[in-house]
Every structure is written in C-alpha cells, then in structure tokens.
From TrEMBL:
Belongs to the LysR transcriptional regulatory family. The keyword Transferase does not apply. Keywords: DNA-binding, Transcription, Transcription regulation. It comes from Bacillus xiamenensis. One of its GO terms (molecular function) is DNA binding. Residues 1-59 form the HTH lysR-type domain. PANTHER family: HTH-TYPE TRANSCRIPTIONAL REGULATOR CZCR, HTH-TYPE TRANSCRIPTIONAL REGULATOR YBHD. InterPro entries: HTH-type_LysR_regulators, LysR_HTH_N, LysR_subst-bd, WH-like_DNA-bd_sf, WH_DNA-bd_sf. This is LysR family transcriptional regulator. Pfam families: HTH_1, LysR_substrate.
Length: 298
C-alpha cells in the first residue's frame, strides 16, 4: 500500500479538487485520479462523490477513513523526522492553526526564535476561528493550534502562553477617550455590540459579576466585523486586548474589573508528537516564560 496515494487523497480533500491537488503535488491530474481510483479499487469502496455543482465530496466511508489516513501520514512524518535526527539532519513540517490576533502578535516572535535554532523545519499555517482550530486539531489537519484555555477540549495537551486582558473598545471620538479606566456602571446605557461565540462567555461573565445587563443593540459572531462596527461608532464592546489594540479607528480602555482570557498552544498528544512539534513547544515555553509579565495583556 503506497503512502503516496494516502497523501494524494488527503490533498484532494484539503484543496477541494483534483486539479488543485495535482498542482500542489507536482503531479498530472490523471495521476491524481489514478491514485484515488486505485485506492477505491483495492478497498472496494467509493471514497468520493463527484458533483458538477458541489464539486468533490467524501462519501460516508470516505469521511470515516480520512482521520485514519491522516494519522498514518502523521506517523510517517514522525518516522522521517526521527531518522533525520539520528543523522544530524533536521527535517520536518509543522502545521499550525492560528486566529488573527495570535498570527499578528504572538506567532512572529515564536517563529523567529524557533527558526534560529532549526532553520530547515518547514511550516504551514491555517488561519481560522477558535471553533475551526479545535476541529482541525481533532481531525488531524493541524499539529499545533493557538487556542483559548477553557474553550479547548480536555483531550489536548496545553501550554499557557499569555494572559490576554479583556478591555472596553469604542470609537476614537467617544466620550471614553479621556478615561484610561472605564467603570462597568458607565456601560449600562451604552449601545453594546455583543460577540456571539468566540469570547462571549467572558463578556457575559464580566457583566454578570458587575450585576449589570448590557444594552445589547447588535449580536455579531465575527470579531473583525465587531471591530469595524465599533470603528463606525455603532456601539461599544468588550473584547481581548490582543485583538482590539490592532484595529483601526478603535480606542480601548481598561475596565475597573480585572478579567483575562488565557491564550495557549494545544496539541492532541505531546508525548506522541513529532520531534519538531515537541521542540516547538519547548521553544514556546522558553520565549513566553522569559517575558510573560511584559507580554501579559499584549
């Protein structure tokens, strides 16, 4: 059984077409089709549904087998890394899931330190929502993910990185602009933009402890959309400083009640991870332990 066929099937699903998979793998489209067809013939099952309107979809058995195929490919990658280490040759690929603010504020510092020590290790990045990152970890699409502690599943090994302060955000000409600290009571009558999902539980907890009911005008899921609405003066919001401090036309202030979310690295099982991933965790621990206090609330 050829691992190339496994890699081909996984790439077709990842990219959504035989043509894109062929280009990524430097193969002809007919070679990709043949690899998938040979798997289907060997196993006696159909792995894909080919629909002109919806494109490529997995069959039920295909969805069942895909996590096992990814696990085999991950094991092969680990074997190759272990062999390379015995020859004093570093090689490997780390697939990282990250959300926007982690990509901008945390990942670059970590990558600089890692690549100084291990310049030959390659990286592939997947940027998405918190929920998508957890799903990618579960399904084996990524090796490591930036997550928010408390929202991550107990099935993962976690390395806490920073304490990200929850702050109030408002339009740059709002009356709060001269206030470094905003009292929770001052938010009672402010048009409020409530996040749904993401860090909603943190925001609700802040209001609950202050015994205040927000004057919610909008409920929005996408954090970038929330920031743009705040920047247009449609309301105020509460959210993580790591993200909000990077947004245009948005000002932030501390709240008179302290509340943080903890950003962490997650891995399905660190003891079974590849040498490259284990070293990634080791470097991350070193980087963020050195200046945890200065990074706190970045």
């Amino acid at each position: 059984m050829s691992f190339v066929r496994f890699e081909t099937m996984a790439k077709v699903i990842e990219l959504g077409s035989f043509t894109a998979a062929a280009e990524a793998l430097n193969m002809t489209q007919s070679a990709v089709s043949h690899a998938v067809a040979s798997l289907e013939t060997e196993w006696g099952v159909s792995l894909f549904i080919r629909d002109r309107k919806k494109g490529i979809m997995l069959t039920d058995i295909g969805r069942t087998l895909l996590p096992h195929i990814r696990e085999v490919l991950n094991r092969v990658e680990k074997i190759q890394q272990e062999i390379a280490l015995t020859k004093n040759i570093e090689t490997g690929l780390i697939r990282i899931g990250t959300f926007a603010s982690a990509s901008a504020c945390l990942l670059p510092k970590l990558l600089v330190s890692y690549q100084k020590k291990h310049p030959k290790i390659e990286f592939k990045f997947y940027e998405g929502t918190y929920e998508e990152i957890l799903e990618w970890l579960h399904s084996g699409i990524i090796d490591v993910g930036f997550v928010v502690k408390g929202e991550a599943d107990e099935a993962f090994d976690l390395l806490p990185l920073i304490q990200d302060e929850m702050v109030v955000a408002y339009h740059e000409n709002h009356r709060f602009q001269q206030q470094p600290i905003v009292e929770m009571a001052e938010l009672a009558d402010e048009p409020f933009i409530m996040p749904t999902g993401m860090y909603q539980s943190h925001v609700e907890d802040i209001f609950s402890k202050a015994h205040i009911k927000p004057a919610t005008l909008f409920e929005v899921h996408d954090c970038t959309t929330i920031a743009r609405m705040v920047g247009e003066g449609l309301g105020v919001t509460i959210g993580p400083k790591l993200f909000l401090k990077t947004q245009q036309h948005v000002q932030i202030s501390q709240l008179n009640v302290a509340h943080h979310r903890e950003v962490a690295l997650a891995c399905p099982a660190l003891t079974h991870a590849s040498p490259a991933v284990k070293e990634f965790f080791h470097v991350a621990e070193s980087v963020f332990a050195k200046d945890r206090n200065s990074v706190k609330g970045v």
